[in-house]
Amino acid sequence: MNKTYLKLTFFFAFLLQSFFVNAQEEVTTAVCDKYMNPPFVSDGQQYRALINAEEVAEFRATFYGGSIYRITACSGSQEGQLIFAIYDRERNELFSNRGYNNAPYWDFKFNSTVDCIIEAYLAPTAPPSGFAILQIGFSK
User: Fold this and answer.
1) CA 2/CA 11 separation, integer angstroms
2) pTM value?
3) DSSP 19
4) Which of 19, 39, 75, 87 could form a disulfide with 81 if both were Cys (CB 3.0 to 4.6 A apart)?
5) CATH of the domain at 34
6) In whole angstroms, what is the distance from residue 65 CA to residue 111 CA?
7) Distances in Å between the alpha carbon of 72 and those of 3, 25, 125, 131?
8) Which residue has better confidence, 140 or 132?
9) Cα(28)–Cα(133) distance, integer angstroms
10) 136 CB neighbour count, 10 Å cutoff
11) Is 110 in a helix, a strand, or coil?
12) Tally of domains within the chain
């Protein structure tokens, strides 16, 4: 009887945790979605990671010369909780939203194709953990 009770407790705890994780991810995605609007179209991918306050999520992307892009970056239900920076392959910083009040999006264009590293981490005022969600879109 005790083993069955224990197994059921773990099962329901797992289900409850999954529900809250999915709910948090949906709320964060909705915040990013409101910035991915015409003339920008998402590349169809979501770059996401569950991070703690001291962790940095790293993503890689290739941006083609001559195209206009928008990157959105969100965590939680409020803007400004995620800081992101874009680097070239040699780790030269190309952009960071730190100097722009942790703005949730940035529009940019490269003259030539560039392979980039995108780092994202939680702002000091953000909750101690959460999803980092980035979306990349391009202008039609």
Assistant:
1) 14
2) 0.78
3) H
4) 75
5) 2.60.120.380
6) 5
7) 47, 15, 19, 13
8) 132
9) 7
10) 22
11) coil
12) 1
120: DSSP letter: E
53-63 residue pLDDT tens: 889 999 999 99
Return all residues near 57 (Cβ < 8 A) that are at least 6 apart.
49, 51, 119, 120, 121, 132
Tokens of 58: 């790293």
DSSP 113: -
- Find out whether 132 and 48 touch, Cβ atoms under 8 Å: yes
Element (H, E) at 33: helix 2-33
Residue 4, SS3 per DSSP: helix
C-beta separation of 116 from 61 below 8 A: yes
**Which structural domain range is residue 22 located in?**
2-139
Question: Could you give the CA distance from residue 64 to residue 121 in angstroms, rounded to a whole number?
Answer: 25
How large a percentage of the chain has pLDDT more than 90?
Answer: 55
